[in-house]
Amino acid sequence: GAGGLTAEQMYSVLEFGAPDRKQHVADNYRRLMERLATDSTVNVANKIYVMQNYAVKGAFNAIATGSFRSEAESVNFAESAAAAKKINGWVEEKTNNKIKDLISPDALDELSRMVLVNAVHFKGTWTYQFDPSLTRPFPFWLSETESRDVPMMNIKKHFAFNNFEELGFSALELTYGGSDMTMMLLLPNERMGLTALEEKLPTLNLAELAGKMHKQEVE
User: Fold this and answer.
1) Are 61 and 44 in a shared domain?
2) Mind listing the pLDDT tens digit for each residue in 192-215?
3) Do residues 118 and 130 share a domain?
4) DSSP code at position 203
5) C-alpha 11 chain-centroid distance
6) Assign residue 168 a region: left if phi > 0, alpha if psi is -120 to 50, beta otherwise?
7) 96: closest CA among 122, 118, 115?
C-alpha cells in the first residue's frame, strides 16, 4: 500500500528492485506460500489488524488475501488489553502455542491504526537422526591456541557438501524427512575464520552455493 518515497525506501531496504515491480513481488510471494502450504514441517500465517471504523482499500485487500493469504480484521486498539489478547491468541494458535505474548498492551493505544502480524511455526525431523551414543568430546577452539572439549554430535552419511576454498569455508546441507526444507551449515576453513565468514554473509547467494554442492560421504 505504500507509495512515493516510502515505497522506494522499502523496496531498496528489502532489495526488491523498483516499486513498479510490486505485482512481481506479490506473485513470487504467492507461489512461495502455495509451496509452503504443502510442506508439513512449516506453517506460515499472516494477518492484518485494522483500527475499527477504518476501511482497507479493496485493491490492497485483494493483494493481501490473494498473494499473502493475509485476512484483515477490525479491532479497537483503544482497548489495548483486549486488542493485545486477541492478537496474541491468534499468534499462539498459529505457532502451536510456542510464541506467547508477542505484543504488549503498552504497544497499542487509540492512535494505533494497523498491526501487521507474521507467524512462522517450524518443526522438522532430520532425515538422518543423530545417534546419542555417538556423541563424544571434541575440541572447541576459543582462540588459535586455546581449546575446550565439549560434547559434539557425530554422524557419517552422504550429504550435499562442498569446500569453497576460494571463499574460505565449507558448506553442508542437512535435509528434513518428508520436506523440501534443508539446513545449510557454513564452516570457516580457518580455525578463527568465523568473523571473516560473517562479513561475507550479506554477499553470498545461498541458492547458487547449493547448486554447486554434491552428495558425498561426510563425517
Assistant:
1) yes
2) 999 999 999 999 999 999 999 999
3) no
4) G
5) 19
6) left
7) 122
